[in-house]
Amino acid sequence: MNFKKHIQILASAALLSGMAFTACDDVKEGDRYIELPKIEVERGALLVDFTGQMCVNCPAAHEAIEQLEEQYGRDKLVAVSVHGGSLAMPVEITNFNSGLVGLMVAEGRALNEAWSIDTWPRGVINLTGQSMNFDQWPAAVRAALSQATDIELKVETTYAAKEAAAGTENGRIDIKATVTSHEQHGNLYVQYWITEDGIQAMQRFPDKTDNNYIHNNVLRAMVKSMPGEKITLTPGEASEFEASVDCRYNDKERWAIDNLYVIAYVYEDGKGVQQVVRHKVVPAAE
Predict the structure, then answer these.
(1) How many domains, in total, are found in the chain?
(2) Per-residue CA distances from 44 to 38, 241, 273 (Å)
(3) What SS3 class is residue 190?
């Protein structure tokens, strides 16, 4: 898929009433995960997991991601869980007093629409090719990690707290990406996503509802409009790019700084993500 055309971020929330659970992809128990032999990995691969809190088969996909992360390491396999579509719960319905937490942000809704996802869970590797069911992820991840890339990407982050009401986590994340290419490329973009681990919120299963499920790799925000900031690289020379994002802490979203990551990647038109890194946000020492 070509992301040169910016994705329009939609502001309206999907209604939860009348949700059908038949839109979940069903995979037999024995076919859910097949571990393949290890390979030498010198690059990162981005796995976009399209998911939803009302999707009864999505927890099995989350388990598949955990197994792939264990096999390759979270520094190489960079998974992002994008809540979007009719089985996702929008942040607009969140009521912290009652314990109701929605995880679909506008950026996730727009990504889901851009990829025309209408069954869940589905996955896309390096923002290229077709979406696939999670029993296909191990082979696709292995293939992506085996591909050569000449692009090097390093990321630094600084968290700066702001004055806020007591007990809040408001602040700003400053990001610096250093990109080096050893070959000539076409249209390149650098993009940053914010993800959060350890979010406790409702999740449907085939036989139950878990109101205390722990969601990881959850997409919280995009720092740049898609496809990202267009960049030009001179082969053999390092270039630096900077960005920042304000942390969200309000009556609908409450980011936990200690659980935040910056996902930075370099995307090339027609070829997808060429390099990706995950960088943990570390609050500055007081």
Answers:
(1) 1
(2) 15, 19, 9
(3) strand
Tokens of 38: 């290890």
What confidence score (pLDDT) does residue 21 get?
Answer: 41
Q: State the residue for tokens 């994340």.
A: 173
- Per the CB < 8 A criterion, the answer to whether 216 and 228 are in contact is no
DSSP at 217:
S
Q: Rounded to an integer, what distance in angstroms lies between the CA atom of residue 260 and that of residue 196?
A: 5
How far apart (Å, rounded) are the C-alpha atoms in residues 144 and 43? 9
Q: Would you say 46 and 150 are in contact if contact means Cβ atoms under 8 Å apart?
A: no
Contact predicate 166/158, CB 8 Å: no
* Rounded Cα–Cα distance for residues 34 and 25 (Å): 18
Residue 263's domain comprises 42-280
Beta bridge partners of 263: 193, 278
Residue 30 has pLDDT above 60, yes or no: no
Confirm whether 11 is domain-assigned: no
Q: What is the pLDDT of residue 15?
A: 34
- The pair of structure tokens assigned to 118 is 């209408």
**30 is a domain residue:** no
DSSP state of 194: E
pLDDT digits 0-9 by tens, 193-233: 999 999 999 999 999 999 999 999 999 999 999 999 999 99
Listed in order, strand segments (DSSP E) in 93-249 are 122-125, 128-132, 151-161, 171-181, 188-196, 199-204, 209-215, 218-222, 229-231, 238-246
Query: Could you tell me if residue 116 is inside a domain?
Result: yes
Distance CA 67, CA 203 (A): 20
Q: What is the CATH number of the domain that holds 276?
A: 2.60.40.10
